[in-house]
Amino acid sequence: MANRTSGDKNVKVRILLIERMLSKDRYITAKQIVSRLETQHEIYVEKKTVYDDLMAIDRLIPLEAKSGHNGGYRIMTFE
What we know:
The chain is α+β, with helices and mostly antiparallel strands.
């Protein structure tokens, strides 16, 4: 049976899964995150929810957002 999450007890798990998808080396889009949550973890969310989760993660781990064709989110690097 699939997990339906929209503000329930699975929020923490979802945020941890999203954090693990993030990388310093490549960008990932909200659409890709939604797809991976659905296919790999049977967690169904809207992109708006993913954006909210990314904002929560950004409070602890600085994220870089890039718009455009090769855009998305990644963990910010300080060089």
